[in-house]
Amino acid sequence: MSRIDFLNPDSDERLLFARICDLSERAERGRMCFSRFLNLREQEIAKAAISAYCVEHMFFGGFEGSEKAMLGLAQKDSQLQKDYFPISLLTLEFKKDAQISHRDVLGSLMALGIERNSVGDIFLYDNKASFAVTSQLEETVEREIKSIGRYPVKTVPYNGDGVIIKNTEDKTCVVSSLRLDSVVSAVTGKSRTAAAALIKKQPVFINDKRSDQTDEIVPLGSIITVRGFGKFKLSSEASKTSKDKLRIIISKYI
Question: Per residue, what are the HEC states of 159-177?
């Protein structure tokens, strides 16, 4: 299989692949380059694109463990460091009774005309929302965002005062295999037949790639999103039961 055979021909994936190849060529010529924020599927595409080039590369999203990340590229043997990434970390501070969600924060940023790929991960904790944006947008966000909905907010640089944690609820599940219908059955609580029908009917994503193939194998450690049910992460390891089934831990983002 070639580097592009896994790309969806009816999407922007081939365009992204070409853009990453262009950045890689520039990096080979000695220019340090950075992409916009990439989701998990886009990072997979980027890895395939850069595999043909002799460059240094790094994915970084501003926070440790970020899902959305920029790709940094530099000439081979260059000292590519996290401090070089054009990422700014900001925090919105609001009152304790403010009901502000991830969607509210993202919506306020989008209302400024900011594109989604210019925003990294968003974390809510302790009456605050911290997020990553491309550095060129820092002043705009600080100047323009004074409220979210009816709640006043104060925009300040992120100072690392909070431990960024993705809140999850874990449960142990036993599945017959890592087929998508089996995994969706486990995360939704539906029968396998109902899970298969759901996969065909509405969006299900594996690491940000949409799938409607019930027999697709879900790699351990993957993030699964099922519209209407939430976002889940599979454990990176599995153990076998006495009946030769798989015991895995599934974490639901809350």
Answer: CCCCCCCCCEEEEEEEECC
Find out if CATH 3.30.1370.160 is the number for domain 13-82: yes
Rounded distance between C-alpha atoms, residue 115 and residue 217, angstroms: 32
Higher pLDDT, 54 or 10: 54
pLDDT in tens, 59-94: 999 998 789 999 999 999 888 999 999 999 999 999
| Top-tier CATH class for 87-157 | alpha beta
86-100 pLDDT, tens digit per residue, is 999 999 999 999 999
- The 3-state DSSP composition of the chain as helix, strand, coil percent (nearest 5) reads 30, 30, 40
Task: Report whether 247 contacts 240 (CB < 8 A).
Answer: yes
Full-model pTM? 0.83
Q: Residue range 27-42: average pLDDT? A: 96
Determine the length of the chain: 254
Q: Which residues contact 179 (CB under 8 A, 6 or more apart)?
A: 214, 215, 216, 217, 218
Determine phi and psi for 168, rounding to 5 degrees.
-135, 160
The CATH H-level superfamily of 168-253 is RNA-binding S4 domain (3.10.290.10)
- How far apart are alpha carbons 231 and 252 in whole angstroms? 6
Torsion from C-alpha of 5, 11, 14, 20, nearest 10 degrees: -120
- In order of 45, 190, 248, the CA distances from 4 in angstroms are 9, 35, 32
* Rounded Cα gap, residues 216 and 81, in angstroms: 37
Query: Order of strands, edge to edge, in the sheet holding 87-93?
Result: 119-125, 128-134, 87-93, 154-157
